Amino acid sequence: MVKVNGEAIYDTRPWEIFGEGPAEVIEGHLSEHKNKDNTEKDIRFTTNGDTLYATVLDWPTEEIQIRTLDQDKLNIKDISLLGSSEAITWAQSEQGVSIQAPKVKVGKYAFVFKITTN
After folding, report:
1. Which residues form the Alpha-L-fucosidase C-terminal domain (predicted)?
2. Which domains, from first to last, does the chain contain?
3. Which residues, in sequence order, are CB contacts of 64 under 8 Å at separation 6+?
4. For 103-112, how does the pLDDT look when each residue is reduced to its tens digit (9 = 90+)?
5. How far apart are the first and last CA of the chain?
6. pTM of the entire structure?
């Protein structure tokens, strides 16, 4: 995972919004077993310069909707999937960005979309 997604981890910073999605984390000593598995709707963000990384926490089986990334928030130039040469189909609107689910799964745990801005 680090070999493929390392650029979204190392030398990055938190973005202004940590992420989005339905996951609720139960905190406290020995509480790990109380947390539900993350889904494809759980997304976390990091940034490096003009690049935003959106890490989807489970393999997307349907179109990904990222409401946080509407046209007023960010001017997106391109989106790619780390570890994949597949062209990613996406569209940005006032409601956010929609990304078509990739056809070929890369990795097992977290899937990073590299979003180039400006």
Report:
1. 36-116
2. 2-117 (2.60.40.1180)
3. 40, 43, 56, 98, 99, 100, 101, 113
4. 999 888 899 9
5. 28
6. 0.88
